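Model: Ready when you are.
Researcher: Fold this.
Model:
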Amino acid sequence: MPTSNCPVAAEPTPPAAPDPELAAAVEVARAGAVEEAGGEPIGAHVGVEPEHGGAATHLFDATVPGYRGWRWAVTVAHAGAGEGVTISEVVLLPGPDALTAPSWVPWQDRVQAGDLGVGDLLPTEADDARLVPAYQAADDDDADAEVATDIGLGRVRVMSRIGRFDAADRWQGGDYGPDSDMARSAPGHCGTCGFFLAVAGSMRAAFGVCGNEFAPADGRVVHVEYGCGAHSEVELDTSSPVPVSELVYDDTTLDVEPALEKDVEPEKEEPAADE
């Protein structure tokens, strides 16, 4: 489709300051707010803001029960200098400290991990980016592709690369990832533990399942660099924490033994060299 080269007109910016005549019409704006509020008292005037087209909006604190921090916004205008000021609109708007309802979230985006209960159903969308037909997963999950294409059985869809990356990010950043407090204080990593059961497919190099019933991650998906104190190769040091010498010398008592006298033979004189 051809596109137009015409520049898009930018929305005009409001003036830096409101028209002085409109800014001075505080009582006119207050009267409009009182009428809209059904005669209820109106709070203090908190400011005036310029609008497009030469209008201005006066803001008043609202005293309506349940609307803490809200403001009456009264927009005023005139037909020209010296003309009477008229009210264009009166609405109740939240101020910077107003108590407001949270933003609307579609129901399909509200479900969080752990929300699914017994008997609940959570169907996936037909175009869910986390899933692809099994025959398209031949890039690194060859077992799934072989089952799906060679004998026509197996799962209809398997996790896509996007789905696997999302799962890997969750697992790595979770309670059983390498950055958890337990992992940082562990004597060894799960990748070197005998209780580590590696998963199949493209996740094998990074994740597995803990099979140690005494470990905090038993039956959980763990990262290879996660670890705990129940590592299969942990050995307790049973030696004494106080260094002890193997041979102890008692140097408080000095034992003196007399030397034994022995017969010493006289030394024989060597004959002279010229004899």
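Researcher: Now this one.
Model:
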Amino acid sequence: TPSLIGQDTKAYGSFAFDPAVGDLKVVKFAPEFSHDRWYQAALTVEGKIANLDVTYAGAYMERQINAQLDYSDYSYFYDAAYGHYITDNSLAVVDPAQKIIGNDHFTKNSHELRVASPTEDRLRFVAGLFYERQTHAIIQDYVIDALGSNLAVPGWPSTLYLADENRVDTDYAAFTEISYRLLPSLTLTAGGRVFESNNSLKGFFGFSENWQTLTGFSSGMLKCTFPSPIPIVHNAPCTNLDKTTDEKGFTHKLNATWQVDDDHMVYFTWSNGFRPGGINRVDLGLVHTPPYAPDWLMNYELGWKTAWLDDTLHFNGALFLEEWKNFQLTFLGPNSIPIIVNAGQAQIAGIESDVLWRATDNLTINGSAAYTDAELTQQFCSDLACSKGAPKGQQLPITPRFKANMTARYDWNLDEFKAHVQGSLVYNGSSWNDLRTIERGITGKNPAYTVANFTGGIGKDDWTLELSLQNAFDERATLYRYSECTPTVCGAQTYIIPNRPRTIGLKFSQKF
């Protein structure tokens, strides 16, 4: 089974707004746009050897992104905080408006071969091999048009800062899973995966020698490895980054499933997960220094899937507890370069559930909800004195404590047509964007929000016409808050990424 899929997307303008300027308004000093195109080719081969199912799956993906973003906040706040350094060749202070011209090229090549025994056997197994190689060629060109050539990165006119790097991630794995039907209603499953991962990042990042000497900023040509007649990345002025990490490990899964009867099932799963470590471009000199280590997740889950009232009511759910060890945290460090550190230990406990009720032949109601208590179980220190960071018990970012949604749909016959109306409510609780106490106090909290959506339509035979009203009451939800550079420097200029405003749509579908 071969497949080919591709997409070409062009976007213009900013997806965020500045509440200090007005609702859905923003001030930018350079045009913002992106051109993102990708394709993926895949091949699946399925067959049998004796009574074993054999499957090969391979895929290749290539993606190119060209973008430009206004980055004037960085120039303004750093220039004001550290002295007016942005000058021309005559040392006259010039317009610090800055933009990022980005070119990113990604590839991903993956292969998997697996063998499985017949599903009806009392003892069943799956075993296989996996390989994946990902590459990312990075060019991030930070341009100030009026910048003097004496401050620019050599070979890159008007470039204050340059990132010209190549990243390669390679993963190897072998896995197996064995299931045994101990009793007609009880099945035990055990699985394991051994793996090796390799991560490398090479090239150049930072400022020119003159800029580093003038400002004292650490990243740039003064950290290059000389003599360097041929830079590792050919567009770079020299090489100051050549790092590699390698990890090996084992993950497991244990599961017990009890089929109480045809309508009720409960299960318990104990499993762990792994995320490879990696490379930071700069050494912070803090408690946690690059490279960052792998993080692990230990998961305990007790769940159920049930049907009631002659299969008209379905009630499913799960209780879960996750112990997150050495978890990886990303934030903007010196010079606003992203850094990943291991923030210590955290715990995530909660319950999630969904209900589907066919109330009548025409009316269906379904809903789901989740409560998640995610917090640090030890203090995180982002400096030697532990005066910065987050205390034990701090709520983890991104995930709200409570989320819920509900949908009701009514279908009926309207003369020769099939008609339907549907309404839904989506609730998302409040959340933070940063783990650290000082930074979350600067950028603020995302408030809870509720969004209502409605649709209605008619159809006949092989066509359907549907009218939709999304975000019917034009709720202005905050999905994310950020500043363009380190919040303690640029946090006074905080941007909000909102949800989609009220949207009316008309969709016609035709089957052939």
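Researcher: Key takeaway?
Model: The chain has a mean pLDDT of 93.
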